[in-house]
Design a protein that fits this description.
This protein is an alpha/beta fold and 620 residues long. The chain contains 24 helices and eleven strands. Strands 3-2-1-4-5 form a five-stranded parallel beta sheet, with helices on both faces. Strands 6-9-7-8 form a four-stranded antiparallel beta sheet, sandwiched between helices.
Length: 620
Amino acid sequence: MLELSGIIILGILAQWTAWRFKIPAILPLIIIGLLVGPLATLFTAEHTKLIQPVFDLESELGLFPGDSLYYFVSLAISIILFEGGLTLKRAEILNTGPVIGKLISVAVIITFLGAGVATHFIFGLSWEISLLFSALIIVTGPTVITPILRNIPLKKDISSILKWEGILIDPIGALFAVLVFEFISANAGGEFTVVALQEFGKIVLFGFSFGFSFAHGLAFIIKAKQVPHYLLNVFTLATVLGVFVLSDSFAHESGLLAVVVMGMVLGNINLPNIKELLYFKESLSVLLISILFILLAANIDMANLELLYNWRTALLFGVVVLVIRPLGVFASSINSGLNLNEKLFISWVGPRGIVAAGIASLFGSKLVSQGIPGAEYITPLVFMIVLGTVLLNATTARLFAKIVGVFLKQSEGIMIVGASKFSRLIAQYLKEHGRSVVLIDTNNNNIRAAKERGLDAQVADIYSDALTDDIEFNNIGYLLALTGNSQINDYAIERFGKLYGENGAFRLVHSSEISNPNENPDAGLFSATDDYVNLMEVARHYGDIHEIELNSTEHFRGLIEITKTDTDIVPLFIRTGKKIDLIPSNSLEIEIEEGSLLVYMGKQIVEQASGEVTMENVEE
């Protein structure tokens, strides 16, 4: 009882520690597992583990009798892999750039072959075990990439590549490792024979068949509303476990393949409740991961760790990190827009994650029980790569970014909350003049319209914690809250002002503030007389952004006075060469430089040679 509750408490404490100090959760989880497991034998009175995962008959200590631990690990890994499969979208693979596409294809093959060859010759392991190890370390994963890069301001291209590599390679790498393991299992005890190939064929056949069929069956049941909403998540969980066990009973070791395929297929079917399933599986995965990795790390014996206490371990780690990873990245980025320094940084950041460690423990223990020579190396070697790469990247990524010159000294990107028509016009102008802009909104139609204009736009909720974890926003330095809800605008400034408004966080003025324009809020944007409703009206009637050359500060102030009296003109920016400055609602305090332009939306202002100002009243 004490051990079981202690694992849960320590696991959640490790998750909180990871969140609090912005480090990958796998780091404290494995360290805690090693401390209460093999390392505890060095300082306890009877040289026993504080937590003994497998029940020992002599000492009568332990949690799981017989093979129960491995059954639990199998079921837990099946849920984690299913959740990973759900996140893999076919459209995302097709829409990613060529670099990301090659990282999850060319680089995967280079890692698989390169690490396999290195392991075979450095440790003298069989080709089967060496290639299984190399398949396991293909996986990176967003759970380790995101905490490491969250506070490193990088160009969006670099952040995007690392983010999408982690997301897409997670299920692909897992599927790759499962297939290699199935091939070894089918051949256990002999040479590669026709029988072994037939067994492997059965595993692939039943894995894909059950995964594909049950995914479509579950989708049909959900769409037909045959399951009440409150049972949807647990019904899906039961189905996943059922498919895992059923597939395994037809072809031994095909269950993991079945749930990975089931997740991938289900994730690409248009289901109305897919987000709820993802949230539930994510929460469940957090709990399972917290328990799983303390158990798995604690189950390692000192004898396993001593296997790695030699020069060959350091050599293999160096080859994986300093040779194979850069080779994969450079081969994947041939003829890309990345420069040498950007390629070096992407090569440096390649931490292995939770799926790799979890599957390694499961496969390692199963192969050891089957008597496969060298299988005892699988778990400690993969744990070494996971801990080593996470520690290396967590402690050096920021410094390395500065050394190679990819660290942004000032974040110039702009986040616009709200993707309405006038927000899209503003974003389009900014993009055309060299600024990095991202629009976020909960309205799918607005996001779709923005993407049709070629704008970077995401469906996102500012009340969700997920927004703070997106490393693609690391280059954001300006925050503009342009929604029609004053409470949402205020909340956006309050919550994300420091995170994404390093250079300034602004919002539209409230309709209540227009009645007293002399008391402008410090965060007020564009004009003290224009709120969301007026901006929408101007965008609807005119839909154009214009520029007019400014002669002096007095000239600018005169034009601003005109915009206050004409509701069809809204001042937006001051552009001087490539520099673009936002116009705050207290715009009269701005000093104008020579060669500046006033950027505005609405009627076009025409200045006559006599100095008279007229407006072209042409609506769309």
